[in-house]
């Protein structure tokens, strides 16, 4: 359902919720935001649980830093935590570290909600059409999105070639030395690929600053504005109740 | 007939280069004419194509001299991007030159740049998809989910949708399986189109070309004219320069060396009626049979999958013997490279087992093998004793580039260096070569073939992944055909490559030499 919505109102709503999550220093609000975003992804969009948990790992690690700092080094981090507590809409009932931990997860889950329900190509097109993102920047973003899986494949080849040279099996995860060894050829690959793509796009008529049309743009629907309105209204209600 | 392209004394020199990459040359292409630009690797064919619409020097630094006109208008009077309304370019490596996010995005890209109306674009995109046989439900499919061959088809659809007056194509069939290559050539070179094409693979395009322009090693015109006349009169000169010629021409020249005269024709099929009875063609087409050595590698009911990816080949059982060359054929995306990694022992099978010593792969991207800052240093890093480096490089024709950075070598030189490094020591008794001839000229290809047979004779077991059925026939003792997630056929190269039904079922085409194999079979039957 969320995948059918226009990317821009959806992005606006997600940014508003993330903004609120940053401003409201209340564990209940963070948990509510997290639960809501999780519920929409798991219950409505049917995203696999393992995928959601895996996506939350970096946010949890980030938030865990606040938590451990708050619990283990309470004295040393007192000033920072006090600053955080003195924000607007603060509820003093919970440990600040716990609130910051929940905030990291809540912001991560809302970001995941947007990323997992939005077609990146449609988003870039919408940005080009409605927010005047220059076409050269838009197509550069699309190229970057193409580049990610290509870089992954190239890394595998480089790692296999290195393992062959060293007479060792390919490790499941690369170590720091291996990472360093493949980074230069990988960078060379990325630069060469980007140059070729730029030449090809120019050959096919992409001119910065020139008008261009769009074959297919996702139109705004009534549902997009209803979704945005309901989302903002619900946020207001939650803040008011808390 | 009015002119589409007029080059008068055009020469192009890259920044910091000491000599011209191509030219000076004079070239005219009339509207409605289909011209093939032929030449050895590194003679500047792609450079010329890039300078046609001014990409050199505008987007790629360099210096162009001489007069260049498109449709009577000086090229420099417009920006390269402005020419997109009249000139469509198809690049060699679609993988790196696609712009859109989905198939429909990609096909409409050039049309959007011309600010055409959505209705016109939708109609053109649908027509182009139908022409190229792309399923209609692929419109929203992400480009990144397509195989290399499928991307090339999408690039072709984008080019057809552009509806330009002149098509410029740089090796458009290089990464395609033979069946797909023929289809692409038919669409690209349909009668009435104005096309300037560079391609090493002559088989699918030869009948569709009006004129051939041949550049020599120095990037200057060597000869030009209708294909029949050029290959009939100058076949030997072209072969000397290492330029691809049709198999019929190469065979005619080889037979002439044996004192057998046959007429100058372009297609092998036309040559067959003129072959004298009792002629032994086998040495010209296939490797000399050699007794198989001991088995050194075996895959037993193996399921092969790329790292972190799904299983692409199931239940593969095959063995490799010392001194044997195994050809691995299959359509794009059949899992050939994954099998290569399993054969070499770099990726363990998900199921089943692999028995045998570790092997090495010569990757399609030869640059993956290089880690030092000179050719010489690469050899030393691989463990070659200093005193033997010069001899090794001379053996692979790389002595003159010993001090160069490996990344600055030509495609053929990079491939040879990668092979030289992998075979310089006895570390790997098993070698897998992934598309070793892609993009090479005739001299480069025959050089690689010669080295493959030499390595086999030295007792190594080799597997060669290739799209080129004629190359497979010329170097492989045995071939397997991969498709539909498994091994579809396995047997002597000559037998498998004559199985037209099998090849067409998996999207491959028989070798150009197929009529000769049939003729040999008939002769053998008569002799019996």
Structure description:
The complex is a heterodimer of chains A (242) and B (528). With 242 residues, chain A is mainly α. Chain A has nine helices and no strands. Chain A has two domains: 2-121 and 221-241, no CATH class; 135-203, no CATH class. Chain A has helices spanning 7-23, 27-44, 49-72, 78-85, 96-116, 120-130, 135-166, 176-203, 222-241. Chain B is globular, with a radius of gyration of 24 Å. Chain B has a six-stranded mixed beta sheet with strand order 6-7-8-3-9-10, sandwiched between helices. Chains A and B meet through helix 6, helix 7 and helix 8 of A and helix 3 and helix 4 of B.
Which keywords apply here?
heterodimer; A: 242 residues; mainly alpha; 2 domains; globular; B: 528 residues; 6-stranded mixed β-sheet
Fold topology:
The complex is a heterodimer of chains A (242) and B (528).
Chain A: H1 7-23, H2 27-44, H3 49-72, H4 78-85, H5 96-116, H6 120-130, H7 135-166, H8 176-203, H9 222-241
Helix pairs in contact in A: 1-5, 1-9, 2-5, 3-5, 6-7, 7-8
Chain B: E1 3-14, E2 22-30, E3 34-38, H1 45-52, H2 55-58, E4 62-70, E5 73-74, E6 87-90, H3 103-113, H4 118-132, H5 148-162, E7 166-170, H6 178-188, E8 194-198, E9 211-215, E10 221-225, H7 227-240, H8 247-257, H9 268-271, H10 282-285, E11 295-304, E12 313-321, E13 325-329, H11 336-343, E14 351-355, E15 359-362, H12 375-381, H13 386-395, H14 411-423, E16 430-434, H15 442-457, E17 461-465, H16 469-475, E18 478-483, E19 486-492, H17 493-496, H18 500-505, H19 514-527
Parallel strand pairs in B: 3-8, 3-9, 6-7, 7-8, 13-17, 13-18, 15-16, 16-17
Antiparallel strand pairs in B: 1-2, 1-4, 4-5, 9-10, 11-12, 11-14, 18-19
Helix pairs in contact in B: 3-4, 3-5, 4-5
């Amino acid at each position: 359902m969320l995948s059918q919505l226009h990317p821009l109102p959806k992005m606006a709503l997600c940014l508003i919720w993330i903004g609120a999550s940053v401003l409201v220093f209340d564990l209940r609000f963070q948990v509510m935001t997290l639960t809501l975003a999780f519920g929409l992804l798991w219950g409505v969009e049917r995203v696999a649980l393992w995928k959601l948990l895996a996506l939350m790992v970096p946010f949890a690690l980030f938030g865990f830093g606040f938590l451990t700092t708050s619990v283990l080094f309470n004295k040393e981090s007192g000033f920072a935590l006090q600053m955080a507590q003195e924000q607007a809409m603060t509820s003093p009932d919970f440990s600040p570290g716990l609130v910051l931990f929940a905030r990291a997860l809540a912001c991560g889950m809302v970001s995941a909600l947007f990323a997992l329900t939005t077609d990146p190509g449609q988003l870039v097109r919408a940005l080009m059409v409605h927010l005047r993102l220059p076409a050269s920047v838009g197509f550069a973003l699309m190229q970057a999105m193409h580049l990610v899986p290509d870089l992954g494949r190239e890394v595998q080849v480089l790692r296999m070639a290195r393992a062959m040279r060293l007479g060792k099996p390919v490790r499941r995860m690369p170590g720091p030395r291996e990472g360093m060894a493949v980074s230069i050829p990988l960078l060379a690959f990325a630069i060469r690929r980007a140059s070729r793509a730029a030449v090809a796009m120019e050959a096919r008529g992409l001119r910065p600053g020139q008008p261009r049309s769009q074959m297919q743009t996702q139109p705004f629907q009534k549902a997009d504005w209803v979704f945005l309105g309901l989302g903002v209204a619900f946020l207001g209600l939650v803040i008011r109740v808390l | 007939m009015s002119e589409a392209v007029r080059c008068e004394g055009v020469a192009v020199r890259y920044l910091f280069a000491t000599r011209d990459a191509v030219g000076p040359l004079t070239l005219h292409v009339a509207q409605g004419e289909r011209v093939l630009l032929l030449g050895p690797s590194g003679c500047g064919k792609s450079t010329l194509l890039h300078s046609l619409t001014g990409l050199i020097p505008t987007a790629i630094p360099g210096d162009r001299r001489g007069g260049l006109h498109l449709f009577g208008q000086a090229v420099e009077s417009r920006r390269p991007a402005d020419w997109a309304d009249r000139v469509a370019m198809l690049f060699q490596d679609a993988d790196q030159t696609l712009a859109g996010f989905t198939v429909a995005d990609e096909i409409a890209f050039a049309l959007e740049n011309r600010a055409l109306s959505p209705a016109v674009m939708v109609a053109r995109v649908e027509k182009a998809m139908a022409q190229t046989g792309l399923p209609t439900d692929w419109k929203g499919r992400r480009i990144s989910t397509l195989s290399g061959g499928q991307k090339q088809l999408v690039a072709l659809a984008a080019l057809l949708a552009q509806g330009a007056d002149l098509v410029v194509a740089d090796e458009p069939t290089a990464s395609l399986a033979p069946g797909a290559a023929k289809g692409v050539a038919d669409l690209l070179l349909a009668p009435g189109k104005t096309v300037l094409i560079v391609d090493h693979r002559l088989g699918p395009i030869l009948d569709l070309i009006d004129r051939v322009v041949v550049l020599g090693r120095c990037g200057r015109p060597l000869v030009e004219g209708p294909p029949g006349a050029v290959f009939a009169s100058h076949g030997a000169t072209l072969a000397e320069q290492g330029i691809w010629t049709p198999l019929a021409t190469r065979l005619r020249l080889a037979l002439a060396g044996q004192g057998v005269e046959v007429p100058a024709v372009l297609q092998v099929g036309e040559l067959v009626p003129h072959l004298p009875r009792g002629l032994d063609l086998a040495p010209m087409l296939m490797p000399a049979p050699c007794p198989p050595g001991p088995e050194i590698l075996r895959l037993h009911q193996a399921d092969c999958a790329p790292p972190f990816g799904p299983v692409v080949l199931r239940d593969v059982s095959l063995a490799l013997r010392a001194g044997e060359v195994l050809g691995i054929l299959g359509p794009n995306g059949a899992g050939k490279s994954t099998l290569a990694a399993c054969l070499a022992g770099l990726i363990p099978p998900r199921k089943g087992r692999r028995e045998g010593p570790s092997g090495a792969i010569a990757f399609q991207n030869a640059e993956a093998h290089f880690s030092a800052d000179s050719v010489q240093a690469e050899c030393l890093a691989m463990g070659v004793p200093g005193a033997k480096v010069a001899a090794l490089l001379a053996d692979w024709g790389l002595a003159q580039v010993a001090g160069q950075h490996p990344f600055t070598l030509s495609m053929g030189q990079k491939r040879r260096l990668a092979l030289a490094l992998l075979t310089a020591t006895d570390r790997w008794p098993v070698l897998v070569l992934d598309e070793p001839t892609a993009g090479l000229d005739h001299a480069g290809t025959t050089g690689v073939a010669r080295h493959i047979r030499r390595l086999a004779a030295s007792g190594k077991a080799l597997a060669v992944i290739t799209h080129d059925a004629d190359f497979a026939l010329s170097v492989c003792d045995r071939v397997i055909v991969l498709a539909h997630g498994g091994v579809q056929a396995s047997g002597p190269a000559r037998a498998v490559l004559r199985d037209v039904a099998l090849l067409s079922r998996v999207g491959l085409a028989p070798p150009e030499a197929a009529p000769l194999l049939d003729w040999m079979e008939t002769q053998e039957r008569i002799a019996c």
